[in-house]
């Protein structure tokens, strides 16, 4: 029973400070879809916001979220100038399918692979999907963990606020 | 109790610091996760009596970065460890710590690190909290960019072994050449080619009193990655010298593995083909280690990771002592506004996997377990390990309703994959209906109906689930797994579970109450046992 009380105490304390990741995007090496090394410090969008979305080919909520965003991407980009960057956390088992999957889906996101989980760990991502909004100055300003239907509307609302600043 | 309070204090501090994450020129990031469960004995489903009545797994990670320097620690606490995880995790302490310097050409880490060479056939250290796998290397790593397009990585250290370290030392070097970056005239060539090679060696004192075992065991690998527009090819071959161990019954047989992944895709269409052949490729830093302990390498299995509940009853696990397999997948999007595609388009996905034993001939008499053998490499033997055919259809009827239909036909060698006796090949058929109905902009109903049909093992299962989300922050759900086909009438049990949760920014809290059937949980072909249980669960994750 004491342990349950402690667990709820932890929940309360964590919730009080549930602000999500803040600060600049950590600089680590990821890979392009053709396997070349690429530093996350080069992520840029000319002072406009960036959305970073962690996903995997085996993750159904991730795919549902990226499908839902894809339907709106052109309109969002026109309104806010946003660029969307996807980070696949597929390991060696499914990594070769990532590029095929993206092309078949006709997603137009800028896409990278994180097979050694370096970027996933640096961004403190425990579960996929996990989405971040980076403002025009390169600061992480919004985080969202998991996906339920309609979360893309929440992302859009947050994106509009970031774009107006 | 003091330990729990300490953990609580640590989490509180982590959260408090989150309001002041910029410290001088540096930044502090962190994450926490707590998973707890209560246990009630239930002899009908095989849930054991757990004396401590409750288990808790948790960790807190802190990473500080200031320019080119970064450092971090991960504190873990298992009070006591959740059922299904190795009891040797019981306790708490700093499980991971590192100091790192990284600029554009050099990256040096001292302490713990995770690393993968190629696809991991000779080296992959990684952490999977859900599986209870952490084979981080504690030592030193150097990554150096020698020249444009040429990079090398060197590692040395001992692997994590619960709250200690394995006795073997791991040394490895990997080189990679990106031809399009190296050759100036190739930078705009459409075909991208990357070559790589690795060598990994382990040293362990040859302390076996029965057999003459090698102190040093080396493994090497070569790989090729080729991309051209929609076409890609990845292939890797690995060879390991004789490495007598508990896993291979101390035989002096060398190990080999080859994997090939290739595919082509265009808008709305993709096809992929994969093949692999593995022979005696368990590679651990301790020759007496078993299960997932002290793995130096990783054998990426071919079949898909199943996500639906009943399809997870019979998941495949890589067989390091030998397997040969192929996998093919075709994905096709029926265009929007077409007759079959409908207004919003339809997606089809068909995948087939077939994995058999390697074709081998035993060289010893049958009286010994230490069976040396000859190999007809790349050729499948007669014994089936796993066959799977899965067809899936996704269709969106309207902006408010979409569904997924899935059918799977599976043959599963439970004796080999789950190390059991007497089950032989289990044949089953699985059907899934997965629907999402958007009631309003902030309320969605998610419902699933599944059936697994078989006359073998525990017989057939049915599954139903309904989950509702409110305002996209809160969700409530109920599910029932029903073993209606169990040959023993008294074991035709309902496994009811009720779940609820809250998600806000990086915070995710889920609560559950109900019964869980026994089984195995697999991620990427690496598995752990999940015992039956009955009780409350709580899971909290957060990051800053």
Question: Key features?
Answer:
heterodimer; A: 165 residues; alpha+beta; 8-stranded mixed beta sheet; 5 helices; 38% helix; B: 544 residues; mainly beta; 24-stranded antiparallel barrel; 3 helices; 4% helix; 59% strand; globular
H/I helix tally of chain B = 3
> H/E order of the elements of chain A?
HEEEEHEHEHEEH
Give the strand content of chain A. 15-25%
What proportion of the residues of chain B form beta strands (DSSP E)?
over 45%
The structure class of chain B reads mainly beta
The overall pLDDT average of chain B reads 92
Number of domains of chain A: 1
By CATH, the architecture of chain A is named 3-Layer(aba) Sandwich
The chain pair forming the largest interface, with residue counts per chain, is: A-B, 71 and 101 residues
**Structural Rg of chain A:** 16 Å
Briefly note the structural class of the backbone of chain A: alpha+beta
**Could you report the average pLDDT of chain A, rounded to the nearest whole number?**
88
Q: Percent helix among the residues of chain A?
A: 25-40%
Model regions low in confidence, pLDDT < 50 over at least 5 residues of chain B: 1-20
Q: How far apart are the first and last residues' alpha carbons of chain B, in Å?
A: 27 Å
Strand count, sense and barrel status of the largest sheet of chain B are: 24 strands, antiparallel, barrel
Question: Could you give a short description of this structure?
Answer:
The complex is a heterodimer of chains A (165) and B (544). Chain A is α+β, with helices and mostly antiparallel strands and 165 residues long.
């Amino acid at each position: 029973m004491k342990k349950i009380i402690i667990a709820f105490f932890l929940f309360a304390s964590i919730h009080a400070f549930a602000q999500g990741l803040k600060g600049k995007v950590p600089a680590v090496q990821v890979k392009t879809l053709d396997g070349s090394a690429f530093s996350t410090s080069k992520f840029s969008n000319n002072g406009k916001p960036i959305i970073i979305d962690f996903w995997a080919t085996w993750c159904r909520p991730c795919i549902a979220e990226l499908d839902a965003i894809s339907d709106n991407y052109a309109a969002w980009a026109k309104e806010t100038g946003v660029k969307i960057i996807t980070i696949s956390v597929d390991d060696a088992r499914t990594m070769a399918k990532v590029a095929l999957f993206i092309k078949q889906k006709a997603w137009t996101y800028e896409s990278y692979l994180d097979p050694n989980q370096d970027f996933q760990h640096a961004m403190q991502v425990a579960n996929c999907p996990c989405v971040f909004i980076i403002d025009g100055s390169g600061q992480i300003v919004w985080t969202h963990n998991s996906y339920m239907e309609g979360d893309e509307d929440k992302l859009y609302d947050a994106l509009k606020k970031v774009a107006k600043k | 109790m003091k330990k729990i309070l300490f953990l609580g204090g640590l989490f509180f501090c982590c959260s408090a610091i989150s309001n002041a994450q910029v410290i001088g020129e540096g930044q502090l990031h962190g994450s926490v996760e707590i998973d707890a469960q209560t246990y009630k004995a239930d002899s009908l489903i095989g849930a054991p009596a757990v004396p401590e009545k409750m288990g808790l797994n948790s960790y807190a990670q802190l990473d500080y970065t200031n320019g080119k320097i970064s450092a971090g620690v991960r504190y873990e606490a298992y009070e006591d460890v959740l059922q299904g995880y190795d009891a040797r995790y019981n306790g708490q302490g700093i499980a991971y710590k590192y100091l790192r310097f990284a600029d554009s050409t050099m990256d040096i880490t001292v302490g713990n690190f995770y690393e993968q060479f190629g696809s991991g056939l000779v080296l992959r250290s990684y952490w999977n909290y859900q599986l209870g796998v952490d084979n981080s290397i504690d030592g030193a790593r150097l990554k150096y960019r020698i020249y444009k397009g040429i990079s090398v990585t060197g590692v040395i250290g001992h692997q994590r072994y619960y709250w200690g370290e394995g006795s073997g030392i791991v040394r490895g070097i990997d080189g990679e050449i990106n031809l399009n970056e190296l050759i100036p005239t190739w930078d705009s060539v459409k075909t991208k080619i990357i070559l790589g090679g690795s060598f990994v060696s382990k040293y362990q004192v040859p302390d076996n009193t029965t057999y003459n075992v090698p102190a040093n065991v080396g493994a090497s690998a070569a790989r090729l990655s080729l991309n051209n527009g929609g076409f890609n090819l990845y292939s890797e071959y690995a060879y390991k010298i004789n490495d007598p161990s508990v896993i291979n019954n101390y035989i002096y047989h060398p190990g080999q593995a080859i994997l090939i992944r290739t595919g082509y895709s265009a808008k709305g269409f993709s096809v992929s083909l994969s093949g692999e052949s593995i022979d005696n490729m368990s590679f651990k830093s301790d020759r007496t280690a078993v299960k997932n302990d002290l793995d130096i390498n990783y054998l990426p299995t071919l079949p898909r990771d199943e996500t639906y509940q009943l399809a997870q009853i019979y998941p495949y696990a890589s067989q390091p002592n030998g397997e040969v397999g192929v996998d093919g997948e075709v994905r096709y999007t029926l265009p929007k506004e077409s007759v079959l595609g409908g207004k919003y388009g339809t997606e089809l996905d068909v995948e087939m996997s077939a994995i058999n034993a390697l074709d081998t001939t035993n060289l010893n008499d049958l009286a010994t377990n230490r069976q040396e053998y000859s190999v007809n490499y790349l050729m499948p033997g007669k014994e089936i390990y796993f066959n799977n055919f899965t067809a899936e259809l996704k269709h969106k009827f309207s902006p408010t309703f979409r569904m997924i239909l899935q059918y799977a036909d599976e043959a599963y060698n439970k004796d080999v994959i789950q190390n059991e006796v007497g089950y032989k090949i289990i044949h089953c058929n699985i059907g899934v209906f997965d629907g999402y109905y958007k009631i309003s902009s902030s309320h969605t109903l998610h419902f699933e109906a599944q059936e697994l049909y078989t006359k073998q093992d525990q017989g057939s299962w049915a599954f139903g689930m309904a989950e509702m989300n409110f305002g996209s922050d809160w969700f409530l759900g109920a599910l029932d797994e029903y073993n209606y086909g169990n040959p023993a009438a008294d074991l035709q049990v309902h496994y009811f579970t009720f779940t609820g949760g809250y998600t806000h920014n990086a915070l995710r809290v889920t609560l559950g109450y109900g019964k869980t059937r026994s089984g195995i949980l697999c991620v990427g072909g690496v598995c752990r046992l999940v015992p039956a249980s009955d009780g409350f669960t709580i899971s909290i994750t957060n990051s800053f």
